[in-house]
Design goal:
heterotrimer; A mainly alpha (282); B mainly alpha (271); C alpha+beta (324); A: 282 residues; mainly alpha; Helix Hairpins; Cytochrome Bc1 Complex, Chain D, domain 2; two-stranded antiparallel ribbon; 53% helix; elongated; C: 324 residues; Rieske Iron-sulfur Protein; five-stranded antiparallel β-sheet; four-stranded antiparallel β-sheet; 13 strands; 23% helix
């Protein structure tokens, strides 16, 4: 095969074949039998794997055990089951299993209607094709990672982006009325809200404002709406706040914020009072 | 027999015969013993390390999934009205049910993590290169089928997280251009998620996809045995490396460890 | 080997008749012990006698000559040498000299053809069974939502109902319902409703009302007794609707205001039957101009979440599966 290597440059495929033949010969001459030398390591590793699985199952059970024997109790590793499936729910926040968090967060990144299918199928399909194709576009024989700079950079980028996407997916929150209302006492104490601003705080928590805005760390900033923790320091005035809530795009042309006029004047005034009283963490 | 055997020797001989007889019987009729011997005593490079146990660890995790899954299927009822109650029953009442279900649930995560780690190891070692390209492709298919197991299995407890994650998962497929809506409706077994969706996912989860995974694992192992295991690329004694510039001093200092002769002449060995 | 000394029992067929006789006796015992068993007995006796006669022939001095079975010995090199079994194509037998339509080719073609027929016979029903029911016979729904008078004019309700009680809880759905008051249609006053599905137009998550629920406003929820089972109506004052999954936001007409949804929220068709509100199937909406009873709804056939119904992206989904 590579017999005439001296006279002309050998073709890459001949070099690869020669390399594999060398490999076969080396293994034959100097290799060790799989059993028991390599298999010992395999067995130890498998024991570790099975032990970890059993340990996780035990931690899952024992930290979520409760005297009333309800599996929905939250343990260290999450509940054993959540409430029964209700296709008619209007207060549930769906989340996938952890190994789909990266995809879940990818969907939140593509937040423009025109780009939805990029997040759902486009990027995952391209990633899968690139992954399958690795041995077909990486044709060099070099196997040492330090001499494969592109592969090393690619691997680090992939691992980092997967880790970041998974982390962001795990911590992404949608602020739901039922959850946010629990934060109201915290807001009152942190911002030293006067009593007349407190009904507005409750309303702020349940009216869906935190779906777009954040307030003392609560809420979702996915859509890019401003943080309202210290909106009162801008002293815009209660009347401005009411007008803005009634019709945001009339006051602030181009604002994507929905109109809250349907809440009624009394509740709008409560909200505006709360916003004006929000002077940041005191 | 020229030499008289002691009684103990005779007994030992008989014991060996008793052990060997069924093995010989099996070997004569099937050749299986020889196959297993070939598998066990085949040579692997002398410098393989702990990272190369990740593949067999993944196989172990899969076996845990297969066994616990079969047992769970004995108690689980795949209908919208019973599924949730049967999961509660397995978790809260059936003896050791919490353990088997816990192992299946957490085994799934361990299986997926190990697949990614194993893939990372293969990438790090450059072990997907000639002639092992096909095994890389099979490995990626195994990874996607493992993710499909995760997706189809997630619906089965029929709790809120299960239901809504599946709604989103199915609709994800629905946004694929052209055939997406058809694929989504096929997965849903109709326009809306119903009892048929649950049984469909159950069937995919415990019959079709695992069957495919087992077949691919068989191919994967066949190729591993046929093509051999790679040495770590940084190893001084890596099987198949050229090592032409190995200094003579090193050879003298560590006899037997490094290659005594430079390569170049041995190319084109038997295979 | 000493051929002459081999002792072989004489070949005989009579035990076969004997066994048939026994079988007839047994069958007779079940059906008709008197007649059929007697016939069986007769057969057994006759063939038993014949068998014993044959078996004892040797004892009675008759000499029976049995030709022992022998394998024909082929001289090395004689006869035809089989085809090489080394590799696929080479192993194919060569046509005999003068063969115009080689038998081997015929057998090859028929084997592949018959295999294809078997594959088709299995695949067609199995694939049809697995795939077609997903697309055929999709059911329409009619959901009785109670009297129109129970819906306060201008008030939003989160209505939860069951589209198909036979299916169980899996058919529970939620919609946001508002009575828009009456609307003049060709001279008559007709009640007008806005009924918005709570399935997100992005990926189908359960959309929620952005606003205080009835419990906070001091409004009681009510339950209607409909033909499809109870319908719960929970009053709310939404400033819009929001999706808990990927951040989609909608206004009170269901138009997208922010986030990834590709169109407005789906709506339910409805009719008024005997003064009662009846929900029909859903349809998709690209966007809505105007509000309440005066709203102009840009209506499309019902499609799945995440599918564009207008704009250039609609060409990604040229043919949709049949919906109800």
């Amino acid at each position: 095969m590579a017999a005439h290597a001296g006279s002309e440059k050998p073709r890459p495929i001949d070099e690869r074949r020669a390399g594999f033949a060398r490999y076969k010969q080396d293994v034959k001459e100097r290799g060790k039998p799989f059993y028991p030398y390599a298999m010992f390591h395999d067995t130890v590793m498998s024991l570790v794997v099975v032990s970890v699985i059993v340990a996780l199952a035990c931690i899952w059970k024992w930290t979520s055990w409760a005297p009333h024997h309800d599996g929905t109790h939250q343990g260290l590793l999450g509940p054993e089951y959540t409430a029964r499936a209700d296709p008619g729910t209007d207060n549930f926040v769906p989340r996938p299993d952890w190994y789909f968090y990266f995809l879940f967060y990818l969907l939140r990144i593509f937040k423009w209607p025109e780009s939805v299918f990029l997040g759902t199928v486009g990027v995952p399909t391209i990633a899968l094709l690139l992954l399958i194709g690795v041995p077909f576009y990486d044709l060099r024989r070099e196997r040492r990672l330090l001499r494969r700079p592109l592969a090393a950079v690619g691997a680090v980028l992939v691992v980092l982006s997967m880790a970041v996407l998974t982390w962001k997916g795990a911590t992404a929150s949608e602020a739901l009325a039922s959850e946010v209302i629990a934060d109201v006492p915290h807001w009152i104490s942190q911002e030293k809200l006067p009593p007349q601003a407190q009904p507005g705080a409750k309303l702020f928590a349940v009216a869906g404002c935190t779906a777009c805005h954040t307030y003392l760390g609560t809420g979702s900033s996915n859509l890019g709406a401003p943080d309202l923790t210290a909106i009162g320091t801008r002293n815009l005035g209660i009347q401005f706040q009411i007008n803005h809530l009634k019709c945001p795009s009339c006051v602030n042309p181009g604002s994507p914020m929905p109109k809250f006029a349907s809440l009624g004047d009394k509740r709008l005034k409560q909200l505006a009072t709360f916003l004006e009283a929000s002077k940041g963490k005191q | 027999m020229a030499r008289q055997l002691s009684r103990a020797q005779v007994r030992k001989q008989r014991m060996q015969d008793a052990v060997n007889f069924p093995l010989d019987w099996l070997e004569e009729r099937s050749g299986l013993v020889g196959g297993v011997r070939y598998f066990l005593f085949r040579k692997v490079p002398g410098d393989t390390n702990w990272m190369q146990t990740l593949g067999s660890a993944t196989l172990t995790a899969f076996l845990v999934q297969a066994i616990t899954g079969v047992i769970l299927a004995m108690y689980y009822k795949p209908t919208p009205n019973d599924a949730y109650a049967s999961i509660q029953n397995i978790t809260d009442h059936v003896t050791m049910g919490w353990l088997v279900r816990g192992m299946h649930k957490w085994g799934a995560s361990v299986f997926i993590i190990l697949m990614f780690l194993h893939m990372g190891r293969v990438f790090l070692f450059g072990a997907y290169k000639y002639p092992r390209e096909l095994n890389w492709v099979i490995g990626v298919l195994l990874l996607t089928m493992g993710m499909m197991e995760g997706f189809t299995g997630y619906l089965l407890p029929w709790d809120q997280t299960a239901y809504w994650a599946s709604v989103v998962g199915i609709n994800l497929n629905g946004t694929a251009p052209f055939l997406g809506p058809w694929l989504a409706q096929f997965l849903r077994s109709g326009q809306e998620i119903s009892g048929d969706t649950l049984t469909r996912f159950y069937s995919l989860h415990m019959l079709l996809v695992p069957g495919g995974i087992m077949a691919l694992i068989g191919l994967h192992l066949y190729l591993v045995i046929r093509l051999g295991v790679t040495s770590p690329p940084w190893s001084k004694e890596a099987a198949g490396s050229e090592l032409v510039e190995e200094p003579a001093a090193a050879t003298a200092a560590r006899p037997g460890l490094t290659r005594p002769v430079a390569r170049g002449t041995a190319a084109g060995g038997s295979e | 080997m000493q051929d002459e000394e081999i002792h072989l029992p004489p070949p005989t067929l009579w035990p076969l008749g004997f066994a048939i006789g026994i079988a007839v006796i047994l069958v007779g015992l079940i059906i008709d012990p008197l007649w059929i068993s007697s016939i069986g007995g007769a057969i057994t006796l006759v063939f038993g006698f014949l068998w014993i006669r044959d078996a004892s022939a040797e004892l009675r001095g008759h000499r029976i000559v049995v030709e022992p079975e022998r394998r024909q010995v082929v001289e090395a090199g004689a006869g035809q040498v089989g085809p090489s079994a080394q590799a696929g194509g080479d192993a194919m037998p060569h046509p005999a000299p003068g063969e115009r339509f080689p038998r081997s080719k015929f057998l090859e073609a028929s084997t592949l053809g018959l295999g294809g027929v078997i594959g088709g016979l299995i695949t067609v029903p199995v694939a049809g069974f697995a795939v077609l029911p997903s697309f055929l016979g999709q059911k329409r729904h009619r959901v009785d939502m109670g009297p129109v008078a129970d819906y306060k004019e201008g008030q939003w309700y989160v209505a939860t109902f069951n589209t198909d009680p036979k299916e169980g809880d899996v058919a529970r759905r939620t919609a946001f319902v508002r009575n828009n008051g009456s609307l003049a249609v060709s001279g008559r006053q007709e009640p007008s409703f806005t009924i918005i599905s709570n399935r997100c137009a992005h990926l189908g998550c359960p959309v929620q009302a952005n606003g205080p629920s009835g419990a906070i406003l001091g409004l009681k929820s009510q339950t209607e007794k409909g033909a499809n089972g109870p319908v719960t109506l929970n009053p709310t004052v939404p400033a819009g609707f929001g999706c808990p999954c990927h951040g989609g936001q909608y206004d009170t007409e269901g138009n997208r205001t922010a986030g990834p949804p590709v169109r407005a929220l789906d709506r339910y068709d409805y009719e008024i039957d005997n003064g009662r509100l009846v929900l029909l199937s859903t349809y998709s909406v690209s966007h809505v101009d105007g509000q309440g009873a005066q709203a102009k709804i840009h209506k499309y056939k019902s499609v799945g979440p995440g599918e564009h119904v207008d704009g250039p992206e609609q060409w990604f989904y040229p043919i949709n599966p049949p919906h109800h």
